[in-house]
Amino acid sequence: MSQRAAIQKVWDGMIPIELQLAAADAIELLASAVLPDPFQTFYMLIPRINYLPFITGRVKEQWLDPMLALSGVRAVDGMTINESDIWFEYNGQPLRWHYPAGLLYDMLVSNVAHGEPELPWSLTLHVRKFPVRKLIPQPSTQQMRDMFMAMIKEADFIRNGSTKRVMDLAKSDQMQLLDGLEVHSFEKYYAIHSIIVPLHDAKAVVVSSGSKARSGLPKAIPLKFYMLSGQEDANESTQPDISQFHVSQLPVPLTKEGSEPMTVADAFRLSYEITDTSGNAFITNCACLCQGITIPWETPITWLTDNLFYADCFLHLVVVNIK
């Protein structure tokens, strides 16, 4: 399989979700906690690499608006729904809309590392009382597009030491990249992504000791680890709390001293400054998830960043306790 084909398989990864309207919001909108047929539940597939603000338009157009129309609720009654007021909740936890959907799933579905994923993913939809203390307020398509461009520039700086590749994009290319992400068009997105992150020969990473890496290779890997605090006290029945995840972001070099390829375990030790043998014991008790896949700790980090990156060009790795 070509690298482009592998990347497209990751791009095509989906999560089936089941949406239910919060009872309090239903009562405010419809004067009843029981929704009319056939609107009690809404099912859809969402891309793993995409963001919640890019699906709220479909949810509103295909579910909420028809439900209000069938119920006779009129805009003049003041019962309108704005996309920027919509937010999602899982087991009582508001979902951070600026995180990729697949990352949220890997963090919060506690049994995903055990091969027993919750499908469909059951979420509660809210249209009132936005939790401004827990989420960045006013999510919208435009705000997500702006935030995504900032993420892409950050990843470009980590990889190349500058944001030149992104800043040199024509305005039309930037718009194509964002449009491809928003409408989930791989062809549109990848045509511009391949300019920002050109393919390289993975074998070029392994260079002789003391020599310099070939041109075209990144200076470092944009990578974030997400690790739940207090994992040693956790068990399978414990519901992860997203506020208790420690996020470690450190530019990770491609190789260790002596030009040996950097592995996921090496990157984890580097990110958390683990130098003693107790860290090795901790690693053996944990699984590392990326794109819903349990990644072997010995996987070269360059292979991972070439094949399992998210749309923002970062590797988002979730570390979960499996013992």
Gist of the model:
Helix content is 35%, strand content 16%.
Q: Structural class of the secondary structure composition?
A: alpha+beta
Order of strands, main sheet, comes to 2-1-5-3-4
Helix percent reads: 25-40%
Provide the succession of SSEs. HEHEHEEHEHHHHEEHHEEHE
Anisotropy-based shape: globular
Mean pLDDT: 88
How can the largest sheet be summarized?
Answer: 5 strands, mixed
Rg value: 21 Å
Number of separate helices = 11
Strand proportion: 15-25%
Q: Could you name the ranges where pLDDT drops below 50 across 5 or more consecutive residues? A: 207-214
Descriptive notes:
There is one protein chain. This protein has 323 residues and is of the alpha+beta class. 35% of the residues lie in helices and 16% in strands. The protein contains eleven helices and ten strands. It has helices spanning 3-11, 23-30, 56-71, 101-108, 141-160, 164-167, 171-183, 186-196, 264-271, 277-284, 301-307, and strands at 14-21, 42-47, 87-90, 93-94, 121-126, 223-228, 245-249, 286-290, 293-295, 315-321. A five-stranded mixed β-sheet has the order 2-1-5-3-4. The protein has a five-stranded mixed β-sheet with strand order 7-6-10-8-9, sandwiched between helices. Strand 8 (286-290) and strand 9 (293-295) form a beta hairpin. Helix 7 (171-183) crosses helix 8.
